[in-house]
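Entry type: protein chain
Record version: 2
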Amino acid sequence: MKELSKRTETFTDSVIRRMTRIANEYDAINLSQGFPDFDPPKEILNRLEQVAHEDFNQYAITWGAQNFRDALAKKQSKYMNLDLDSNKNIVVTCGSTEAMMSVCDPNDKVIVFSPFYNAI
């Protein structure tokens, strides 16, 4: 199997994963993940049944669904007074860690505003 990039060698389990292991070990209530112990509202289940037969039942492409990127480009173009292209200037990631790994090089400086998710 191919080795992971050197950049990821220092990555550890997320706090959520670690807390889940601890909660399981001590048979504790796990507040770190969404494991509801109740059924979803009937309206949500009914809508889920409807959308299961529509075309939107697949993961979005890695860099974000086109309609979502289009909406972001439109909003940010107005907000930033720039002409942003949703295919050249907008990338959607699965969280800040993926975003930083995608666009940052070693020794880059990154500002993370509080509150934040402690991924490391």
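Comment: The chain has a mean pLDDT of 80.
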